[in-house]
Every structure is written in C-alpha cells, then in structure tokens.
Amino acid sequence: MEETARLSPGTLLIYSRLIEEDHTLSNDLTLRRGQVIATASQAHNTANETAFPDPKMYKGLSFYDQDLAKHRAQPFYNLDSEVLTWGSGLWACPGRYIANLSSRVLLIKLLDEYDWSFIDGKPPPVTALHEFPLFSPDTKLNCRCKPASECLGISF
C-alpha cells in the first residue's frame, strides 16, 4: 500500500502553507503575505532517483521487502522522509493507521467477493477537484459477485 500511495497519492498537494509575511528567497523570488505555497506530492515521489531507483516504475513489494518483520508488525509505523504522502515529523498524519487498516479491510472484502474489470478494458479518466484526484462517480465498471465456492470467506 505504501508503494501505491507513493505513485498515486490521495492528494496532489502536500504541506500547504500560508505566507504570513513577505519573504524573498535566495533566487530573488518574493513570496507575498497571503499567498499559499505547497509541494506537489506525486512529482516529488516520482522524480527522486536517489531514493527510488527507476522512480516511475511500480514495485509493489519495494517497501515490504525492506524489513519484513517490522512491516508486518507495524505497517505505516515509520514515515519515510522520502515519501511525503503521510507527512512527516510533527505534521505526520495521525489517522494513517486507521486509513491503512480500513483500506485493507475494504480491499480484501472487495477482491475476495467480487470480480472487477474496466468496460472495454480501458481505465476511466482521472479528474481532480482542488488537489484531490477523483474518478467520476458516473464511471461504469464490470462487477460480478463471485459464487460462495470461489470466495475465501474472509469475515471481520
């Protein structure tokens, strides 16, 4: 899930800050009081070749393999300073544990009990509302409820 969040974060902008007083940067760019600045999360996560060799390639187990025992015991516990999706330090998202757990429960149930596919094999376009990427609620997917014999019967 960390790799998915790295490449496809739930928000396009992170670390939004309001400028409280005029400030001139070392390159003579002036930030004016009242302006908002932010970091583009996906751009940061897909451009850092030092932290992620081949950063645009999806490697589903890249975070999982780093320390398997610790990952199993405490997923999302440590925040990688290279992946800013969940924030870091004082600004780390306190709800990341709940988001992780509820996402896994939902994903497990949906994959166990249903077969999913895109209409005509084409993924829907992604749009954005403010900084949040969204799929249109009008997007149609093929969904088939699996017979009980094909399900693992996972319950929570």
TrEMBL record:
Top-level taxon of origin: Eukaryota
Gene Ontology molecular-function annotations: heme binding; iron ion binding; monooxygenase activity; oxidoreductase activity, acting on paired donors, with incorporation or reduction of molecular oxygen
Needed cofactors: heme
Originating species: Cytospora chrysosperma
SUPFAM superfamilies hit by this protein: Cytochrome P450
Family: Belongs to the cytochrome P450 family.
Keywords tagged on the record: Iron, Metal-binding, Oxidoreductase
Name this protein carries in UniProt: Cytochrome P450
Pfam families named in the record: p450
